[in-house]
Amino acid sequence: MIGRLNHVAIAVPDLAAAAAQYRDVLGARVGPAQDEPEHGVTVVFIELPNTKVELLHPLGENSPIAGFLEKNPSGGIHHICYEVEDILAARDRLLASGARVLGGGEPRIGAHGKPVLFLHPKDFNGTLIELEQV
């Protein structure tokens, strides 16, 4: 059902400093910051030859990333994202197997402009999983 790894998302307390570190120290190609108000985050994508790293920073006081950073002030891995061909079929298969889909189970449009869903971390070894339709 899942396809390739789309990205690893890292919550960061200072988005500009983290982006500069990837660009200047690691020599990566760093995209522009983009606000995603529906998700409560500002994101920067780091383009790698085989995948992406998504830097996440809170956008607004109700951001889920703000809560994550309160518990992890230095930041850290927030979620991993896998690609799926059909997000509704993937959702239905997951629900039938007993997995919990967050947010009521309806896909929302993610930072790449494609439908996404998140899966409860307690169902996947403590890891928040994002599925993105390709």
Provide an overview of this structure.
This protein is α+β, with helices and mostly antiparallel strands and about 130 residues long. It has a single domain, classed as 2,3-Dihydroxybiphenyl 1,2-Dioxygenase, domain 1. The chain contains 3 helices and 9 strands. Strands 1, 2, 3, 4, 5, 6, 7, 8 and 9 form a 9-stranded mixed β-sheet that branches. It is globular and about 45 Å long. The chain starts with a strand and ends with a strand. The mean pLDDT is about 95.
Order of helices and strands: EHEEEEHEHEEE
How many DSSP helices?
Answer: 3
Through-space gap between termini: 12 Å
Shape, principal axes of CA atoms: globular
| Low-confidence segments | none
State the CATH topology.
2,3-Dihydroxybiphenyl 1,2-Dioxygenase, domain 1
Question: CATH homologous superfamily, by name?
Answer: 2,3-Dihydroxybiphenyl 1,2-Dioxygenase, domain 1
The beta-strand count equals: 9
| Mean pLDDT over the full residue set | 97
Helix content: 10-25%
Class derived from helix and strand content: alpha+beta
**Major sheet characteristics:** 9 strands, mixed
Q: Note the beta-strand portion.
A: 35-45%
Report the CATH C-level class.
Answer: Alpha Beta
- This entry's quaternary arrangement is single chain
Query: What is the total number of structural domains?
Result: 1
Concise overview:
The protein has 134 residues and is of the alpha+beta class. 22% of the residues lie in helices and 37% in strands.
